[in-house]
């Protein structure tokens, strides 16, 4: 069986390409890391892939706002290709800075059409960079990236991760089941004794999908929680599994997101 091809964007300050490529490869895909200038130069190269990934980082040093400058480069040079890409029933993910890029592009949430910015990712409520694990619950059943029953414990690492949503847009997101993920008080928040919401995002929202469910963005980093021993409470859980006579799991919960996407093309 041919492995789904994944194109991982790079260049100008994106810095999580290797982890993102590894995650897709380990989930059963075949991922390539390509600089955005090379994607622009290779006409329709983007269309040879089934999944596009905009990874985390600090594109253009977050000048003019996180993800804004990179989004402008994509819009000016690749917009028509991305529209054709989505017409082919393919998938797009944006992680952290990648989510900010998708929001600035108007690919998320894109309630009525692509291209208009409808929400914002602002400075964290505590006005500082936040790095820690959080707990996430899935809020929608309409995306191939997610299953409604899934719960994730994965890290955040951002300074502009606070999702700000106008009330009218928020109501439409709820009506159309486009809220993908919410922070909640789960295993990691309790273990670390920290609030569920790490940045003050409206209604604890951590991720969004578009109306089709094919475009997905989130602030936390699933590619940094691929293995069980990356969890902060791993030593404790290891001892619990040992005493209960259970086999230690290999995967971390972030693995599911990449696995779901690859299985969409199986």
Question: Can you lay out the helices and strands and say which pair or pack?
Answer:
Blueprint: E1 5-10, H1 17-26, E2 30-35, H2 36-41, E3 51-54, H3 68-87, E4 91-95, H4 97-105, E5 120-122, E6 130-138, E7 151-158, E8 162-164, H5 167-175, E9 179-183, H6 187-192, E10 205-209, E11 215-218, H7 234-243, H8 255-263
Parallel strand pairs: 1-2, 1-3, 3-4, 4-11
Antiparallel strand pairs: 5-8, 6-7, 6-9, 9-10, 10-11
Brief sketch in words of this structure:
The protein is α/β, with parallel strands linked by helices and 266 residues long. It has helices at residues 17-26, 36-41, 68-87, 97-105, 167-175, 187-192, 234-243, 255-263, and strands at residues 5-10, 30-35, 51-54, 91-95, 120-122, 130-138, 151-158, 162-164, 179-183, 205-209, 215-218. Helices cover 30% and strands 22% of the residues.
Describe this structure in words.
The chain has 266 residues and is of the alpha/beta class. It has one domain: Rossmann fold, CATH 3.40.50.880. Helices cover 30% and strands 22% of the residues. It contains eight helices and eleven strands. The protein has a nine-stranded mixed sheet. Strands 5-8 form a two-stranded antiparallel ribbon. Strand 10 and strand 11 form a beta hairpin. Helix 3 crosses helix 4. The longest helix has 20 residues. The termini are close together. The model has no long low-confidence stretch (mean pLDDT 97).
């Amino acid at each position: 069986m041919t492995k789904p091809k994944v194109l991982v964007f790079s260049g100008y300050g994106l810095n999580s390409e290797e982890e993102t490529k590894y995650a897709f490869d380990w989930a059963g895909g075949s991922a390539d890391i390509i600089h955005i200038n090379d994607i622009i130069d290779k006409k329709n190269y983007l269309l040879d892939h089934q999944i596009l990934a905009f990874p985390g980082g600090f594109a253009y040093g977050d000048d003019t706002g996180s993800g804004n400058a990179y989004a402008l480069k994509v819009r000016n040079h690749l917009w028509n290709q991305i529209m054709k890409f989505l017409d082919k029933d393919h998938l797009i993910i944006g992680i952290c800075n990648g989510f900010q890029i998708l929001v600035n592009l108007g690919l998320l949430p894109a309630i009525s059409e692509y291209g208009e910015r409808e929400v914002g990712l602002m400075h964290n409520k505590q006005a500082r960079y936040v790095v820690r694990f959080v707990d996430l619950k899935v809020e929608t059943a309409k995306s191939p990236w997610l299953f409604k029953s899934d719960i994730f414990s994965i890290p955040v690492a951002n300074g502009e991760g606070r999702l700000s949503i106008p009330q009218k847009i928020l109501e439409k997101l709820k009506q159309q089941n486009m809220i993908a993920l919410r922070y909640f008080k789960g295993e990691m928040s309790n273990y670390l004794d920290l609030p569920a919401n790490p940045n003050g995002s409206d209604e604890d929202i951590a991720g969004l999908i578009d109306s089709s469910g094919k475009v997905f963005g989130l602030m936390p980093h699933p590619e940094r929680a691929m293995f069980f021993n990356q969890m902060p409470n791993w030593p404790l859980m290891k001892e619990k599994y040992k005493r209960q006579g259970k086999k230690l799991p290999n995967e971390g919960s972030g693995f599911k997101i990449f696995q779901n996407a690859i299985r969409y093309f199986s």
